[in-house]
Specification:
It is a single chain. By secondary structure, the protein is of the alpha/beta class. It has a domain of 201 residues: NAD(P)-binding Rossmann-like Domain (Rossmann fold). The chain contains eleven helices and 13 strands. The strands form four sheets. Strands 3-2-1-4-5-6-11 form a seven-stranded parallel sheet, with helices on both faces. The radius of gyration is 19 Å and the shape is globular. Uridine-diphosphate-N-acetylgalactosamine binds next to helix 6 and strand 8.
């Protein structure tokens, strides 16, 4: 049994990690400032973990949170490409300054390893597909720049201080508990809710934009593997966390139509600033060095996700 600190523990990915760790019998501490995380995501597990309401920008709180911890899973962030286009300073504070605080605290507490929630946005709009880790990053949005900067800090803390770090470049993670209600929500969460309530979804662009949509269980498993893989295989390195398959927005709309029963058409709007056209990962390195496998494919993941949103809409006692 090891002790884990999950930053962003009340977020969609953080809360999924908390549950997986508790299920294995590990000890879990979590921090969240509820800027994007939600208490409801942790409702039935609050009593089984050491939860602290804290901001990653608070170094003292991070030092206390890292004390006695073996592994840090650093998920806390302000996600969203469009949000960062509107507020690049806010994105930089949470996504870069916050990460440096977590790293300093982890280094000083002699944590064994820090696993970081990096982003596929770091690759930018390079025409080469699939995207592999040896490619030159080419970030477009402030969010992508911040995520890449934090990745480089991860590498730097390994090289300068010997703190083992692993960055997982998440490719559009989706699944239960992803917030569907904000204009900045991930497209699958947003569309699932809209189509379940009969609201017309809008595709930004012509719908041929594609993503390597990755179900949450794959990301959870990648994090656990990134903690257990030998340091010689993964310390100071970056790995794609994805499925190796891309789906267009038009295809996601068609798939969701079948799953939600939505009868209407989709609306098309202008492309979003800072967006990437196509995203697809090469997962060879993660398979080779972390032992990563795709556990749940897109179709199965989407079915489970829609089922979960449906279950949330049932009246209590129904
Ligand atoms: C980026 C990263 C992702 C993660 C995420 C965090 C890429 C390729 N992916 O996701 O890994 O870090 O940021 O926020 O950079 N869209 C619509 N209609 C809507 C909402 C979105 O058409 O109502 C489009 C959007 O313009 C984009 C696609 O759907 O083309 C995916 O958008 P998203 O916000 O779900 O995720 P994305 O790709 O910005």
């Amino acid at each position: 049994m090891a002790k884990y600190l999950v930053t962003g523990a009340a977020g969609f990915i953080g809360s999924s990690l908390v549950r997986a760790l508790l299920e294995r019998g590990d000890e879990v501490r979590g921090v969240d400032n509820f800027s994007t995380g939600r208490r409801e995501n942790l409702t039935e597990v609050f009593g089984r973990m050491d939860f602290r309401e804290a901001d990653i920008l608070d170094l003292k709180a991070m030092q206390k949170a890292c004390a006695g911890v073996d592994y840090v899973l650093h998920q806390a962030a302000i996600p969203s490409v469009p949000k960062s286009v509107l507020d690049p300073r806010g994105s930089n504070r949470a996504n870069v300054d916050g990460t440096v605080n977590v790293l300093v605290a982890a280094r000083d507490a002699k944590v064994k390893r820090v696993v970081y929630a990096a982003s596929s946005s770091a690759y930018g709009d390079t025409p080469t597909l699939p995207k592999h880790e040896a490619m030159m990053p080419n970030p477009i949005s402030p969010y992508a720049v911040a995520k890449l900067a934090s990745e480089l800090y991860m590498v730097s803390f390994y090289r300068c201080y010997g703190l083992e770090t692993v960055s997982l470049r998440y490719f559009n993670i989706f699944g239960p508990r992803q917030d569907p209600s904000s204009p900045y929500s991930g497209v699958l969460a947003k569309f699932s809710l809209q189509m379940l309530v009969g609201e017309q979804p809008t595709i930004f662009g012509d719908g041929e934009t594609s993503r390597d949509f990755t179900y949450i269980d794959n990301a959870v498993s990648a994090n656990l593997l990134a903690c257990s893989a030998p340091g010689a295989e993964c310390a100071g390195r970056v790995f794609n966390c994805a499925t190796g398959r891309r789906i267009t927005l038009n295809e996601t709309f068609d798939a969701l139509k079948k799953l939600t029963g939505y009868k209407g058409a989709v609306k098309y709007g202008p492309e979003r600033s800072g967006d990437i056209k196509h995203s697809l990962a090469d997962i060879t390195q993660s398979q080779k060095h972390l032992g990563y496998k795709v556990l749940v494919d897109f179709e199965d993941g989407l079915r489970r996700t829609v089922e979960w949103y449906k279950s949330q809409r049932q009246p209590v006692g129904a």
